[in-house]
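Training component of the fellowship. As part of building independent skills, the fellow (R.M.) carried out the full modelling exercise for a liganded target. The chosen ligand was adenosine-5'-diphosphate. The inputs are recorded below so that the supervisory panel can assess the work.
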Amino acid sequence: MLITPRQDKLNKIVVLNPKGGCGKSTLVTNLSACYAARATPPAVMDYDPQGSTMAWLERRPGDLPTIHGIAAYKKSMQATRSWQLRVPNETETLIVDSPASVDHNDLRELTRDSTSILVPVLPSSMDIHAASRCIADLLLVAKIDRRDRKLAVVANRTRKNTKSLGKLMRFLDSLGIPIIAVLRDTQNFVSSAEQGIGICEMQPSRVKPDLEQIEKVVNWLDSWPQRRQSSTSTTSIGKRPAATRTLLHRTQFGSV
Ligand SMILES: Nc1ncnc2c1ncn2[C@@H]1O[C@H](COP(=O)(O)OP(=O)(O)O)[C@@H](O)[C@H]1O
Ligand SMILES: [Mg+2]
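Fellow's submitted model of the complex:
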């Protein structure tokens, strides 16, 4: 049966960064392939009109574990929006892919009832600047409270120990937002995308370092019940309003 499960039971993961090409669909497809190996099939919801995640799903070989796809970018005149966006009742994990341009209303809709929000970032100065804007909007527009610990960054296409990676790490550290994984720049991601599979479905010896990083992301995502629990029972991580104001100021005046 297709009906949205109770929100408190649904692990809704949102992958977001208005910068095109930063690795949103790569992360969404790889995470959904990992969750597909579990007992209950995950659902992916693609809000990007480019439809990369839906196209990946169409290429997916039929003998691999099922992933339920929802083309949220298609707006139907025949059905209500909530009917269009329904997911199978048994779904435990929903992974949301987002488009390159997101206005404030879209941002609120995308992140509503999310358990985790991942921001993939390429470590170049321009991308770090765009990501800082995105993080500022998440905190100030979508009102994501850092005490909920649902926001994390995945550094993508990195080469080790570059100046820009260090800069990204220092910047996020100052905001108390963790970098939970660092994905290297490798053809493995390109090749898995072409085949409609995830890194976890490729030959393990070929993808070992990449799979380790994807598993780090999954482990962090799986900790959402504990993160939710601790955010309701503690206020030890401050809201840091001053840091948020500084972030907004910096992103407005381009000094990140
Ligand atoms: N770590 C990586 N190594 C190599 N290529 C990558 C990596 N991450 C993404 N890509 C490639 O970069 C392009 C853009 O990535 P994509 O996930 O589609 O970005 P977005 O969804 O944010 O626009 C794709 O061709 C993808 O295969
Ligand atoms: Mg995409």
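The panel noted the following from the submitted structure. The pocket of adenosine-5'-diphosphate (ligand 1) is lined by residues 20-26, 52, 156-157, 183, 185-186, 189-190, 193 (CB under 6 Å). The longest strand covers residues 151-158.
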